[in-house]
Amino acid sequence: MLDLRIDNATLIDGTGAPGRTGSLGVLNGRITTIGRVDEPARKIIDAEGRVLAPGFIDIHTHYDAQVFWDPTLSPSSHYGITTIVGGNCGFSVAPLADGDTGAYLMRMLSRVEGMPLESLKACSDWGWNSFGEYLDRFDGKLAINAAFMVGHSALRRSVMGERANTDAATPADLAAMQKLLGESLAGGGIGFSTTISPAHSDPDGNPVPSRLANRAEMVALAGVVRNFPGTSIEFSLDVQVPFTAEHVQLMTDISLAAERPLNWNALLPSARAPELFKSQLAASDHAAKQGARVVPLVVVKPGDLRLNFTSGFVLDLLPGWAEILHVPKAERLRTLAEPSVRAILQAGVDEAPANMRASYANFHDWTVAETFSPATKPHEGKVVGDVAKAAGKTSLDMVLDIALADDLKTTFVLPRRHNDAESWELRSTAWLDPRALIGASDAGAHLDMTDSFAFFPQLLSIGVREKKLISLEEAVRQLTSRPARLMGFSDRGELKVGYRADLVVFDPATIDHGPLHTRFDLPAGAGRLFAEAIGVGHVFVNGIEIFRDGQFQGAYPGRAIRSGRDTTTPPMVEAQ
Ligand SMILES: [Zn+2]
User: Fold this and answer.
1) What's the whole-model pTM score?
2) How far is the CA of 247 from the centre of ligand 1 (A)?
3) 225-243 pLDDT, tens digit each
4) Ligand 1 mean position, distance from CA 1 (Å)
């Protein structure tokens, strides 16, 4: 007697092989039979006309704190994602030294990943120390499986305290960080993550701890990783500009020291700058020549970037803006009204690089997306340039006046970029490039800014169905077996006998997501962007159904994935 049988499905197995009609049997959380299944089962699902695929795998999320307030890890689980990787960009929440480390990391995350501070404080007691203790906190309590990288900033702050944000590491600091990283990987961390991106600053305007590391520190920490099977590396850097030779060699050296693939986030192909993404992809060739492996995660769709003056994220990259935006809100409300301060802001825009001005400091092209006061309501849905013209103001003054009237809550949307046919063509070339992997969701982060968390249904709806830029089989491969192999998830990512029964049944004719809207369900009442799944019939994790037609089934069969136990070492050359 099987636990589960799914009949009459189009089986798309995750390898890229053509779909075929058949059944699949599950017993004790694993796939036991595929193709023709005659055995009786306790639960039988008729999937006629629908696809049965391996559960999707999202390797770039920031669900590190969400595990405590939303054990379903929504919205990812709604879309058929059955395994996530968190702790990316150096921003894990473990290990955690006693003292103010937890308080610092919460403040850092509030800024750098756009998570409301009051929600972070309310979601947990932050009482763990070791990485293993952190995993134990939620193991067996989640709807889906979750693996976590050990973040450089958490390590550095735990070892060096406040000096982590100002000083180079002493030999003793480095030795202590290496020891703590080793203990964290032994405790189940699935790799090491770090960032050198200038976008990553804490609320005081200081670089996050990992940005104070020199290359010797980065490489020495990567060297620890090679001693732990089933681990890998994640790296974040400035992707708006061509990579310097130094940065390409740094990624190469980190991968070589770790003897592990390194993935970075995100490749943004655009017809406006076709050379930029080609040169960034070439970093993988440079690395491969030296025996390293560097894998970019490429976006599915151009993001509709949403900005506000509450978090100020991205805007603070404009010259001189960080000092003005990174002050308590009451002070910001006062200073942003002052003409002298506005003159400094305008000067920052004038001296910003052309690509920054064109990409987001073009206030006249912004749209007022969501307002929060009767005075600003009439502007909702309007383009700032038009509103400013009618009011006889500059666009920057108009944006600031609206934001101030809304207590800084106003959401502005930037014009959709890179949405031309040529850019879609370029993106799909990158999707199919063996050096890259489709990804870059950032789910759980930038909660007020982007919908990149929804790239799974977007690939299947826009990429496969609407624009026909990728086959359904290849899209499923990119969402399942390729990320599984990159992370060393040895018994996940394919429909294969003996593999874990992480499964999704979806309708290829309708799969999509609903409209983006704000949901006020964070701890302490803060809001986040959300979009419901469409066309996802069933989601199974370790053989247990967690979603049926969009309804959560109340089960928590997800496990904390631990390196070595649940993973094998990913290869330095991808098997074709
Ligand atoms: Zn990230």
Assistant:
1) 0.89
2) 18
3) 999 999 999 999 999 889 9
4) 44
